[in-house]
User: Fold these one by one.
Assistant:
Number 1:
Amino acid sequence: MNGAVVNGAVPRRTRVVIVDDHAVVRRGIRAYLEVLDDMEVAEEAANGQEALARLEWMAVNQCMPDVVLMDLLMPKMDGATTIGAIKKRYPEVQIVVLTSFGEMERVHAALAQGAAGYLLKDAEPGEVVSAIRAAARDEVFLDPAVARGLTQEIVSPPTGLAALTGRERDVLVLVAEGWTNQQIADELVISERTARTHVSNVLRKLRMTSRTQAALFAVQQGLVPRQRP
């Protein structure tokens, strides 16, 4: 039973930070969590940058949260980038995604950055609480639809273009147009190392060994026009 007293001691509440750019969403989640005797909403933030500022203040004051409940699509700093920044600075803080978007590309990005849970916003309030509690126990909690998608990828992994993320498709087009890794990096505003990683991922997923093969594939798929002789 939540909040049960064991041997005279009251269990410590799970401290939660809510990050969402919609105030009404934050207020709704806070109202629900605060009626639970094992939850405490420590802070709120409207975007990733604000979340990092709040966490920095909390670290200085030694009142860090256990779990950050976070949307993905936010202004100033998107959720996936924010997750990576939080896990790099505060690895002990667990993060649960609560978003409207269930595309596998977004799921992979969030989990790769260190998210401990992924829920869609049509989830029941009880599922949100279960995800927060699971994260606080260092466990992973996935929305059933997301879990099915990941399972399907394992059973029947996508091939060809379907295997590539949107960013990887962009990289494939640029490779086909003869761009170097540095030019790709400049165009996509990423580091040269990240561009090189994207190119390697494209080749691996397409089961190819050279940029020339990838370029021919892009032409065959109609991603870039054929060069006139």
Number 2:
Amino acid sequence: MNKIAVALIDGYQQYISPRKGFSCAHRILYNDESCYQYIKRMFMEQDFSGAIQAARQRFKACKEANQTLKLQAVSREKKSKKKQDSKLINCCGDVAEESCECALPDCNNCDFPELDCGSCELDCSPNFDCCGS
């Protein structure tokens, strides 16, 4: 039975895996062997029932690794968006450090009175100063 299982895994790795379009989450997260490499090794090292149990545990761990990778991707995306938002400038020319909100609510002295201080979304280049100060 173990030899048949190893042959099936070999066939999967050779013909199906290259076409599925994604990699083993456990391998990516832990920089380790893929699930099928691990399970194939278990079939070569253990009896059939032990290898099946190891496969179940590994697929469960792989599902958890997939969830971890998704959370990491969302976290990176949020950090990237926050970094982009923090590059906005307020109406009076002062760069807001942690957010894109205007630091000073009174922008009546602004050279550009059409700007709405509550929703400034000006490009924050180092030389930009909307109030001319």
Number 3:
Amino acid sequence: MTDQALTTPARRRTLRPRTLVITAVAWLLAALFVLPYLEMVITALRPADELRDATFLPKHFAWNNLVDVWRQSTLGTNLRVTLEVAGGSTLLVLAVALPAAYYTARMTFRGRKLFMLLVLVTQMFQPTSLLVGLYREFFQLDMLNSVWTLIICNAAFNLAFAIWILTAYISSIPAELEEAALIDGLSRFGALRRVTVPLAMPGIVTALIFTFISAWNEFVMGLRLTTVPSSQPLTVGINNFIGNYTVQWNYLFAGSVVAILPVIFLFAFIERQVVSGLTAGSVK
């Protein structure tokens, strides 16, 4: 290599006009999506006497709103209930969906396609369409205002999605790996625990995070199946700031900020595994 080649500066990469336009549009769309959340945070920090002011930023920020919202409501208890419901639903879905998906992906049995069709059909039923029947059933069982009621309902409505995701991911894992483990002396359960589950972890995480987020954001079931404030989830507790004649906007948005932050951090932390799980089986 000559001295001239060593001293020649590297050519700077020039952006094409098409790339600039696409980047500008992407930033604009991102701003449009972020703007409502920014407005929510700003409103959560507005003093009560400035809620009706036609200004984007308040004259001064009321940081005490984030503290007073806990003192003047049952949000602390509602947050605990939501954590119990979301965590319990996620564990219940995992305990049921993983064996069902593994058996469906690895075994050939009569009625397999019918089983998968029935799993898909259950996704067609919305919780609101079954609300009257579920309310009557849990009323007769004396299970209203119970955390277990919300756990069972949320797990039932997210079970089909988890089975589909896990079946697709486990099917993409070569069965020869399990056969080699069986030859080495492992049982079927041992091969599942030591071989299949570690390889299927992105799919498992995808199913669990979607179940957790769905249970965390659930509102309709929590509103109708719970009437006592101490047994209501966070979404219903936030809704209590909407009165018949007034709306406490600053506390409403302060509670909303508290509700969305855990989900944002959780999704950002495992975003790569979620994408990997959703694209399982797309490439052969």
Number 4:
Amino acid sequence: MTATTAETSTTRPGGPGAPAGPAAYHGKPGGARRVWLAVAGAALALVFLAPYIVMVLDSLRTSSDVKTTPPSLLPRVWQWSTYAQVLGDERFLNWLKTSLIISLGSTALVVVVAIPAAYMTSRHRFPGRGAFLFLVLVTQMFAPTSLVVGLYRQFFELNMVNTYAALILTNAAFNLAFAIWILHGFFSSIPVEVEEAAALDGASRLQTLRRVMLPLTLPGLVTATIFTFIAAWNEYVVALTLMIDDDKKPLTVGFRSYVTGYEQHWDQLFAASVIAVVPVVILFAVIEKHLVGGLTAGSVK
């Protein structure tokens, strides 16, 4: 009996003679794994942040220090007046104004057009619905670079070269498909009974869309808005082709003026780039919660 008891205690899980498991080697279950995941996440974040760190440090160097070889990690001379010079430059303020006008105008136009288009395609089975959605998707396959000559010719015939409207229309056209598709998915996921209940309470179709459907699709709407804004904010090729006057150029095109064949203001270029990133970072910080919800929608039923 004693031998049997001893054998049982040896083989029983968790008994005095049980073989050492993973918890015995690693202490608290999952503790080491969490530490390694945190270290790996911090290292990956540092890799992505490295270009921005270098950009900030270079904005605090003198222009000659930026070109010095071999380069140093920290500035040899800290120059804090570069940001004041950039913000006091009327050219930079004009470029910033142009970027804001184009980005906000394109985003507003995309939202206004994408909401009814996505709502109708998700709720009504009209003839040609599939072809329309396919056509919308096909527009995403064309890069603005491949169409820039045709766009210039078209806007030249319409006398719209060197105008804000040309860039607003172009950016809105190239970002409309993404907004329609993501909002189409959100509208389709909402049960029809929700709209029927609103109709029984006396709400019209427009009131149902504004008071019921849009609040439910807020994550998708925010996602479409931020992606459209960033795409318009970063656009370069079309703006370089269509904008002629220096004071009407957006930031992406205006930055070229800091470094030319005759003068190189590397410190001002990096300082202006840091300032240009700030509005996007603030926008991300404000709507991060809704943005994550929109990107992960549909992953959990």
